[in-house]
Structure to design on (407 residues):
């Protein structure tokens, strides 16, 4: 096995309409103190966009990106052209998920099994020590199959942009912290710009599944089912706050919807719903021996169109430990989200009320007093107050990540 200093890091970067960010990204990569790396880039778009006047600006942006990337001589770079006329995506196979898969599959053919694939996005910045921190996070002998890197969205000089990115990040932190509170195995945050995985693991699990959006979530979920995730790193990534419709859901689309006053896709699920999830997961121990009605039983019967999902698991997994693992794999992060969405409609409270109830119930009074929650509103509170709440949640999440490190 290679030592940390010898291990090569392969940076996987999907690019579409990124000329506003690529120069800074290239500069950040070039300034890395850790020099054992290669950059793999897939400049991509559907080929049919060349005949669509509404997409002309993206096509030309990608053309300029290819020209810029060809000039890189400071470090090894491999460019996969999926954007020039006749070379773009055809049919239904397109999007950031296919771009990531194309890059990562290509890397996995060339790289040593102990090398690392690091996913990044062009609008994400990071310090000169970032690649060193990634190498250091994979400790020899430690049973970790991937790293989910902490993040922090950069604010801008525009109030509307800041209001929307803070709303979205507070939602993400709130969701994650509630999963932390109930010690759920899927308590990670999935960002395509913040995942690192050894090549041998990537090959073993069959690579990344090319969803058009959310491929990072499904990839981390797949990794978590296979083994343990490390969820702390000494260096963060700093994604840009950006209105973008390049993907179907995620940060960019959330901000666009939020700007128009629509946050219905990102509700603050009441903390009591997370408690129901915890009760259900705790009952997996007893479900090994007999059927028990759980808070999620009705939802699961509907979801799987089955009166009893536990009997087949008992038949296939003969030890309690394996049965519990099978239950956790069955009621995974996607099912948890689906349960929350289906149950939230019965919670007749605003996002602000749900957030305030959580903060007051699970934190010390002296901490909460500093957040000025009495008149809190996502639409009218100051950027200063929104950022106070964001930073408070960042602090709480970081404490948990550093305390446990591996989930």
């Amino acid at each position: 096995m290679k030592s940390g200093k010898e291990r090569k890091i392969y940076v996987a970067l999907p690019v579409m309409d990124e000329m506003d960010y690529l120069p800074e990204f290239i500069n950040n990569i070039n300034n890395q103190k850790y020099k054992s790396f290669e950059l793999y880039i897939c400049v991509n778009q559907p080929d049919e966009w060349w005949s669509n006047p509404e997409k002309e600006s993206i096509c030309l942006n990608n053309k300029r990106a290819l020209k810029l990337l060809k000039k890189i001589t400071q470090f090894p770079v491999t460019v996969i052209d999926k954007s020039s006329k006749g070379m773009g995506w055809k049919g239904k196979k397109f999007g950031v998920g296919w771009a990531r898969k194309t890059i990562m599959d290509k890397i996995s053919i060339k790289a040593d099994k102990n090398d690392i694939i690091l996913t990044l996005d062009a609008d994400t910045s990071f310090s000169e020590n970032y690649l060193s921190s990634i190498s250091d996070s994979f400790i020899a002998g430690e049973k970790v199959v991937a790293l989910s890197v902490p993040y922090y969205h950069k604010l801008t000089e525009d109030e509307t942009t800041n209001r929307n990115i803070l709303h979205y990040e507070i939602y993400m932190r709130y969701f994650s912290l509630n999963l932390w509170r109930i010690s759920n195995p899927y308590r990670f945050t999935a960002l395509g710009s913040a995942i690192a995985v050894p090549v041998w693991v990537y090959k073993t699990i069959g690579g990344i599944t090319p969803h058009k959006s959310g491929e990072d979530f499904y990839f981390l979920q797949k990794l978590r089912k296979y083994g343990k995730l490390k969820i702390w790193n000494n260096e963060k990534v700093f994604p840009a706050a950006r209105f973008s419709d390049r993907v179907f859901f995620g940060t960019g689309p959330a901000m666009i919807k939020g700007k128009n006053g629509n946050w219905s896709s990102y509700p603050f699920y009441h903390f009591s719903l997370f408690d129901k999830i915890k009760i259900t997961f705790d009952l997996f121990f007893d479900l090994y021996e007999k059927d028990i009605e759980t808070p999620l039983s009705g939802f699961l019967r509907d979801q799987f169109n089955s009166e009893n999902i536990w009997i087949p698991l008992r038949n296939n997994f003969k030890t309690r430990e394996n049965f519990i693992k099978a239950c956790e794999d069955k009621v995974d992060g996607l099912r948890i989200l689906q349960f929350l969405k289906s149950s939230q409609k019965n919670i007749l409270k605003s996002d602000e009320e749900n957030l305030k109830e959580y903060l007051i119930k699970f934190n010390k009074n002296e901490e909460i007093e500093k957040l000025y929650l009495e008149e809190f509103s996502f639409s009218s509170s100051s950027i200063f107050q929104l950022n106070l709440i964001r930073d408070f949640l960042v602090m709480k999440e970081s404490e948990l990540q550093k305390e446990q490190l591996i989930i």
